[in-house]
Design goal:
The structure holds 2 protein chains of 2 kinds.
Chain A: H1 2-9, E1 12-23, E2 26-37, E3 41-45, H2 52-60, E4 67-72, E5 78-81, H3 95-99, H4 107-116, H5 132-145, E6 150-154, H6 162-178, E7 182-186, E8 192-194, E9 199-204, E10 206-211, H7 220-226, E11 232-234, E12 241-243, E13 249-251
Parallel strand pairs in A: 3-7, 3-9, 5-6, 6-7
Antiparallel strand pairs in A: 1-2, 1-4, 8-11, 9-10, 12-13
Helix pairs in contact in A: 4-5
Chain B: H1 5-30, H2 34-42, H3 44-54, H4 58-74, H5 84-104, H6 113-118, H7 126-155, H8 157-162, H9 167-189, H10 194-206, H11 212-237, H12 241-259
Helix pairs in contact in B: 1-7, 1-9, 1-10, 1-11, 2-5, 2-10, 3-4, 3-5, 4-9, 7-9, 10-11, 10-12, 11-12
The chains are: A alpha/beta, B mainly alpha.
Amino acid sequence: MKDNMSEDTKTVLVKLDGITVCFNGKNVLQDVSFDILSDQIVTVIGPNGAGKTTLLKIILGIIRPDQGSVWKKEGIKIGYVPQKLNLPRTVPLTVERFLCLENKYDRAELLQALEETGAQNLLSRSIHPLSGGEIQRVMLARTLLKQPDLLVLDEPAQGLDPAGEEQLYSLLSELNKTKHCAIVMVSHDLHVVMASTHQVLCLNRHICCSGTPDEISDLPDYHTLFGKNSSLAFYRHHHDHTHLPDGSIRHVD
Amino acid sequence: MWTEPFILRGLIAAVVMAMLASPIGCLMIWRRMAYFSDSLSHSALAGVLLGIALGIGQNPGVAIVVCLTALLLTQIPDRFVIGSDLLLLIIGQTALCAGIIGFSYMPGIRTDLTAYLFGDVLSVTENDLIFIIISSCFCAVLLFLNWKKMIFTAILPDIAQSEGISSKKQSVIFMVLTALFVALAFKTTGILLISALLIIPPCSARFFAKTPEQMAFLGALIGIVCVITGLACSIFFDLPAAPAMEIICALFFFLFRTFGIHK
């Protein structure tokens, strides 16, 4: 019951209760309920069209649920790193100006945030020619300036090579530890998640299963693939049901 | 010659319009809504008719109709089967044709359509000028108060929304700005050429600008030079003013495109 001890000191940041979302009469999310606790890292995985991004947008308040409620801790600051930064090339924008889109920060603050994400040399560059990994770092630095209680990332590892992915994940878990920032992210991979994840949510319009990835990190396959100190971990699914082609769900007795 | 009252009025109207056109045009470009001003301006003809029919004058009539059209356009759902660019085109052309047909039924009015379609900057009256100055002051205040939020929403709508900036509110402000601009500009540039002044100067400025503000500022400078030169061409070479302004804008665009820093 060691786990329960530490749970006591955590507060609930966001509480989703019975969230249902429909697009064009089709349920994208159905009766999704879960809590995001402070200091926690939650990874959401699921197949294409499972409603992962929709779930994040519900948390962020970008879309409203058709049913259910979203409760957020008062005064909570949430940083959002979207899947892709679709900036129109018609906007002349340096990294410096991009970081100050909402508030003005002084140069030292900007440099410090960029340094934390390893992008300090980009400050005066134009944002358009940057690579996917560089933009990822700049976006992360932007959210850090706000000193968020919760970071929401949509497939942050997409488009990164394995080394970049590893780097990103160790950066995230460091932020989680040193800044006590809770993290919710969507992973593009069904089987590999960040090792320091506290909770994995497997989503397919509803929550199929959830749990910690800890138990599987001892698997021999895991070590041969990623080495002992890897930031990546396997997650093994424990489904008690199967999805039939017509969209209905059959529970395994 | 330049001190003739009707030339002075035209000059002031054109310069005020050029200054305002650049920031609004920038936002339009960044929002990828270049068609938007076209549709709106095409509905201005119907506004002229309404103004005459109600006896409230052309400018208020245009302002009302264009604002209503703009607010109607904000109601287009995001995931409509026909994309919003197509819908804008359909609405714009329909509004224009309805206006032209409406005009043919108005007896006793000087139906000089060319003046409405391509502008008649030298016919700006004192009342027009007062209307132009008051509405541009209003636009300038709206722009000044919302500039940062408007840029944020224009280029990162989802993130802005997640940080508590209502994208719905920002779109309504943007639509009202554009509608007012159409109402104050249609006499100077004509219904068909409003978009040219909104879009071309900021596009030229893009080749030299490092920040959004530089683009808006440089665009305004280019716009002012273009309208003054266009007006001069109209006076000295007897060219139609608004088309001359457009051609000069386009010349600037190609010049800046050739020598620009950011391509």
